């Protein structure tokens, strides 16, 4: 047997000297690929470009702040029994239909600002899956969006200020590669920033997500990279290739997304379950939210309860709003006692209440003397707006004329 | 009661006036028309007929024809010759044929865009077509911005807005850029100097974005009469452009009168104030119910003349019918004045050059100019305000005592036989170019093989990569910085960092009233300077140089301030030289160090110096282009320094006329011993970092400039130098002759 043949036969037994065959060259010469790999990153190549993705899974029983992901699942299910309209209603959705979404960019707005990280989270049966799509350097956006769109079949996005920031940014960047990647699908959008402003603004100076986490979700960020440093960290990465800083930004992004799950759960509970409400003002805000979304049944129910609040201001505001709902339904018998209550309390909305009473007395119940009394009372108060004063004086003038006929 | 004089009566009187030193008559011209092209959209034809447009003037027809053939055009038309139809007709026709078509209109100012929108919308309304035209500027409410972006067929904006809002957000304007057929550049001649150089680069960026979205729009430009409309249009648009100048609009007889106020001080050659004469002349027309426009060079002057004239004619016609017009009036106020002029309700208007631009005020009978407007082009524009299509019109230019005014009125040939000035831009100015390459890369990654205008800009891109502003990857340079470059780049000021002017007259209502470029601020906004804003005097209480803020307070004083600058010049490189036996003229790169030293307080009525104070500001350094005249005299006589100063002053008057720039754009400095050679030298340099081509132009046309300077000195009626020419001479020294001899050496 020749030496060559022998070698062939024994091939399997000879210790190989080529570790490179086991550990291949880093793809595309990516620097620090071993660090990426140990962080669970994967490579996606597309038309000569590439992007880096990373998937992290969490057990459904794990908690993030006040709630476990299982709680989130349950709460989403509870929307099924909610009737009527609400901007955050997940009625008819599976928990896996919601895409919790957040991006990191190199600048504020404009076509020169690039999204370098797209993060999504989805609640599956037994786990929560976080997927992140990272742009290793400018000029790889085709790969980034090809991969993102390939894996994304969202029906509803859940974001924090995504309506005015994240999504317009995605649309803008997509324009650059639209010839090579699929179109952006249509979808619903729950923007929790707007929800948080409604419910928490009265207690917080700034409704930034970190603050909401701290105040309402029982979360405290430890070793977190502040979001505003993300651009510098990214440019440093592009320059040096060391992913250490970027991995921290990815951690930050992941925390943001997981917090969206907790926040959605929390807000849904406040809306769906009054026992979750911690204070009377928030309860009133929930009612006002229904009112603004045109769900008058739910709004009335909420206001009804708020009228019993021991916080005078909350109770009076609720009474006034409830009265307006009744008035809209032409239930003046129900509205007038409420308006009376508000006017007699001589609080913030008394003048408005008096005006409403005057309207009902004048136009509906044709009780001119009573309408006149309400108007005169209002005019005796300190009126800040000139227009209100003028309108009242006109009313007074008209009522006096009617009376003298 | 006296009979009212007619215009011809006054013309006869004027002919006999001894102060009239030149009378030029322009013969009437008949209209030249072509029939409306047969294939014009029926709705458009009817809409035009309703506006009594049944034929096209020849220039309108040629413009339409050339645009239909796919050519870029620049239409050069005098005031009120129906220039808007040169672009509205092809644009409306195109949109009527294909409603997905889009057009972008660029106007130099917001106000002009507003004007044009109302005119265009009237035609559209009469067409009954669903064509949407919108203005897009700082005043556009956020609520309708989205509608403008997506549904506007015609978007009217200005270059600043294009630069800082539209191009950097082009992904929001996809439907505009994908379907862009026409880019209209109105008032092309206003895009010159620094502003024009910036705008040429903005248009390069615009073309890049269009090509990204697959469109290649045609350019339709209109311009007032300048010497080089085609060249300017080609430089600005970076495309070949056809010149349309067969003006077919009719014109009535015009009398162009040069009026020189009488000398009141023989030895000093001082004449009676032009303002006084203008007031008197204007009164004569106005009290005879003849519609008159009066131009003045500054906002303050407008207000002064206005109040005088209103006073003078109060008894004759009542004050309401004489109005002022200038920048700083509210748009609504201006619309009322324009309409009043068209309808004849307003009899007279006193205006700055704001009314030079294409605002429609109809045609008046008389135009009076307070002094020479500064350029031939500008003079014809202002003159164009008077002159109806039929009947006579009078234009009177009343000269002031300044050398240039005196030169113009005493050399009528200079004015009437000379071509108007060329408008120059230098889009390749490195500082401007780098600014716009940053913006361009921000908008769209730069391909390595891509050019920007006619330039290979690889070096610039590499420089920006080294600066870590761009990142090179996959054959492209990508923007990789967190900033928004357009925010720091202003198209209209010389230096990028502006000084903000803060009015703190009312403690409760501190407000920003304007801004100024840094170089100008050194001399106009130093501590204690009197700053004029919309005719109101402010005193600078504090110039915070580190934070670029000037705090001012309203005052009422009898003086203005004038700052002195110490200027140091270093020659870096000589590019070109013209040598003669005893002298040389060079062109090249210089460094200028500028240090304001003191300021003087000058009484407004008598121009006496009534005080002074120091200015403490850090030295500024700019790198620019210069042309310098050098004498080979090692040991100059003492009088030479004086002569050089006189010549420098004459050159500073002459050069802006020949290069069509503002007096502040070019600076002239004389040195008896220049630092680099020790020789007597006069420097002329572009007062803008990197230069904008003025010095180069002077170098190229030096002989022309020299002759004009000699002419000015020679024709000045003074005996031995006066402030209107080379300054006062010494006893026994023939300063005028010596200055001319000296000039002849170059």
UniProtKB/TrEMBL annotation, chain A:
Pfam family, one: RNase_H_2
Domain YprB ribonuclease H-like: start-end pairs: 100-267
Gene Ontology molecular function: any one: nucleic acid binding
InterPro entries membership: RNaseH-like_sf, RNaseH_sf, YprB_RNase_H-like_dom
Domain of life: Bacteria
Residues spanning the signal sequence: none
Entry protein name: YprB ribonuclease H-like domain-containing protein
Organism expressing this protein natively: Domibacillus iocasae
